[in-house]
Amino acid sequence: VTSPAFPVVPALDESARAQALDRQAILTKPTGALGRLEELSVWLSAAQGVCPARVPSRIKVVLFAGDHGVAAAGVSAYPSEVTPQMVANFANGGAAVNVLADRVGATVRVVDMAVDADLADFGVAAEVSRWKVRRSSGRIDLEDALTHDETLRAIEAGIAIADEEIDAGADLLIPGDMGIGNTTPAAVLIGVLTGSDAAVVTGRGTGIDDATLARKTAIVAAAMQRAHGITDPVALLATVGGADFAAMAGFLAQAAVRRTPVLLDGLVSGAAALVAAQLAPGAQVWWRAGHRSVEPAHSLALETLGLQPILDLGLRLGEGSGALVAVPILVAAVDTLAGMATFGEANVSDRE
Amino acid sequence: VTSPAFPVVPALDESARAQALDRQAILTKPTGALGRLEELSVWLSAAQGVCPARVPSRIKVVLFAGDHGVAAAGVSAYPSEVTPQMVANFANGGAAVNVLADRVGATVRVVDMAVDADLADFGVAAEVSRWKVRRSSGRIDLEDALTHDETLRAIEAGIAIADEEIDAGADLLIPGDMGIGNTTPAAVLIGVLTGSDAAVVTGRGTGIDDATLARKTAIVAAAMQRAHGITDPVALLATVGGADFAAMAGFLAQAAVRRTPVLLDGLVSGAAALVAAQLAPGAQVWWRAGHRSVEPAHSLALETLGLQPILDLGLRLGEGSGALVAVPILVAAVDTLAGMATFGEANVSDRE
Fold it and tell me: Do A35 and B335 touch (CB under 8 A)?
């Protein structure tokens, strides 16, 4: 056995789902007039096993940080030193994820899985690096990202972190990412798992120019070639992933096992989610997609997962930012389900 | 002169716009990575004349209610008695608009422009009907909706209400609508002002079946025929609009005159906005589109206005609901512009 053994993913609560659907039909509005809000309210009711669903009150962003050896090939507009600098920025509350989390009452936990630096040098607390597997990863166009053992340790870290957060009361989890170069392994994983060409899955990441995009595409193609024929998700993470991807995949799979709803973010979490759905088949029923990234591979990942993004705002930042922007939409869904009067309560006539 | 004389619409503040663009370029993220959030933050800074923009704190939904004679032709899934019943529901806080407004700290003012009932019979305060022009409207497939004088009084009511709310401190205005049958005049107005066919602009409103859709389409076509060749916006409102549309058009035009940003809602506010842009050319620079309705004519209206919707959630409720769901996106835009650290502050390296 090469993969961690995840239990069978539990089903959503069909009774709560049915109650929510019934309630949507008697609220003072034409049935279906709240569109996606109705669907989200029904989903969260089914996930929580209660109708109406409660507004999530302990929202946790777990931000998996890691560097990538492939950055040395010149696939990013930014140098790798930005990864630890941004981790320090997260710790100091200055990044987009912090600002967006504050507004919706979410908290942010940063996990250093493979940052290519000693974060103590950046004033970051040792706790952040408690689960660190290694510094950076192998250059995936030329060599494996991780050893098999490193990959398993990273997945187990993601599982343990999900358990910690859920045991502490988290009722909505959001995966975040930070790592210069991480859109390259994300594109590779999505390319392999959706059977798409390198030219289709490779995007501009942080904003690379045409020459860099051509180089990145060639590197994605080379890495996809190295991963050709690999079907085992652990082997795939070891070959072309990274410790941050492995941890996020374990985290997402375990959230489903633990019946905890997830709002996915963009490209990196889409790639990790595809792998997680291999580790724990059916896990995706516990997830919703916060937004559609401009990265082309992201739409492919969501389509394969059967998830329709809530927002489409042209975001391409990562960190969990897009999922956080979607939180108020989920809240609006719950608020309307729980707070609106019924036709009977309001003495409003239903359709003729 | 048949139209009220609106002053020239003031321009947005180009200095604040430039400052916001400059600030977006030095925040700790790749430039452009926050997509639409960046655009919204720049727009609101330019509208408020200050960078960074302030989070709107006095958000007002003004909900224009009115019945429509054309409802008697069987164009809706609901009876006209629902209009006063829903106005009472708004007063009692049980509708979607109330629940959504509460969450974002907005307040809701309902204005009875032409409800076909005495709202006192429904326990609604007399203040709500202070600006009432008449009960219902003419059947627009056969006769004019309003007289010229009624139309002018309704537009003036919308202007006066905008002035009242802005004088009271409103810093973001949202137009809402309620009125059984109102998607029919909305489709007609958009059909005329975008030069589109009745079959293209007619939608299912509250959820009508195929037979009703065919009847509604024929009625839209007949009303468009009656409006053929009319270019004056007041005459258009009198011929195929209604007092609720006229008031909302005056309200939206005056908001722009008074330099007050607006989040538009769905189909009805899209139709009123098209007319308002005729009353006060250029007013649309003060507006953003909260969402894209499933009603087909709405997209045509937004395209003609040059507005791209923030959300696309399959909503078709009206009331201002879609714009309210978009408020947190605007808030996220301001929060990130105002709250994120710069590269310099956070000691993060900018692109190479």
Answer: no
**pLDDT for position B103:** 98
> What pairs with residue A108 in β-bridges?
A61
Please name the residues in contact with A317: beta carbons below 8 A apart, sequence gap of 6 or more.
A96, A266, B29, B30, B33, B34
Closest-CA residue of chain A to B92? A346
Of A95, A314, A315, the CB nearest to B28: A95
Query: Ramachandran region of residue A78, left (φ > 0), alpha (ψ -120 to 50) or beta?
Result: beta
> Residue A5: what pLDDT?
83
Burial call A97-108: b when 16+ CB within 10 Å, e when fewer: bbbbbebbebeb
Decide if A63 contacts A97 (C-beta within 8 A).
Answer: yes
Whether the ω angle into residue B52 lies within 30 degrees of 0, i.e. cis, is: yes
pLDDT class for A114, splitting at 50, 70, 90?
A: very high
Residue A228: how many CB atoms within 10 A of its CB? 8
CB atoms inside a 10 Å sphere around CB A232: 13
Query: What is the distance of C-alpha B70 from the center of its chain?
Result: 21
Asked if B30 lies within 8 A of A92 by C-beta distance, the reply is no
DSSP assignment letter at B209: -
Residues of chain A with Cβ-Cβ distance to B349 below 8 Å are 78-79, 81-82, 85
Residues A291-296, mean pLDDT to the nearest whole number = 97
Region A338-346 average pLDDT: 98
Measured between alpha carbons, how far is A26 from A343 in angstroms, rounded to an integer? Answer: 6
| Residue B82 Cα, gap to closest chain A Cα (Å) | 6
Inter-residue contact B314 to A35 (CB < 8 Å): yes
Q: Mind telling me how many Å the CA of A306 is from chain B's nearest CA?
A: 17
Q: Count Cβ–Cβ pairs < 8 Å, chain A vs chain B.
A: 193
The residues, any chain, with a CB within 8 Å of residue A273's CB and separated by 6 or more, are: A249, A252, A264, A284, A287, A301, A305
Active site (catalytic) residues of A: 319
Write phi, then psi, for A28 (nearest 5 degrees).
Answer: -75, 75
| Helices A96-104 and A321-339, axial angle in degrees (round to 10) | 10
Two structure tokens written together for B135: 């009960």
Which residues fall within 8 angstroms of residue A172, CB to CB, at 6 or more apart? A56, A58, A59, A60, A260, A261, A262, A263, A327, A330
DSSP notation for B213-227: HHHHHHHHHHHHHHT
CA separation for the pair B301, A275 (Å, rounded): 42
Nearest to A158, CA basis, from A251, A67, A92: A251
Q: Which string of DSSP letters, residue by residue, matches A109-155?
A: EEEEEE-SS-GGGGT--GGGGTT---SS---TTTS-SS-HHHHHHHH
Q: Which residues contact B127 (CB under 8 A, 6 or more apart)?
A: none
Q: Which residue of A has its CA nearest to B84?
A: A348
Do residues B95 and B85 lie in contact, with contact meaning Cβ atoms separated by under 8 Å?
no
What is the DSSP code string of B94-107? -SHHHHHHHHHT-E
Pick A35's closest partner by Cβ from B81, B92, B294: B294
Q: Is the dihedral of CA B324, B328, B331, B332 positive or negative?
A: negative
Counts for chain B of helices (H) and strands (E), in that order: 14, 5
Residues of chain B below pLDDT 50: 1
Cis peptide before A52 (omega within 30 of 0): yes
Quote the CA–CA distance of A344 and A155 in Å, as a whole number.
51
Phi, psi of A167 (to 5 degrees): -60, -30
Neighbours of B26 (CB within 10 A): 15
Tokens, residue A116: 């290519």
> What was the pLDDT predicted at B318?
97
Q: Which of B36, B324, B339 lies nearest to residue A313, judging by beta carbons?
A: B36
ipTM at complex level: 0.97
> What are the angstrom distances between the C-alpha of B262 and each of A172, B239, B259?
32, 27, 10
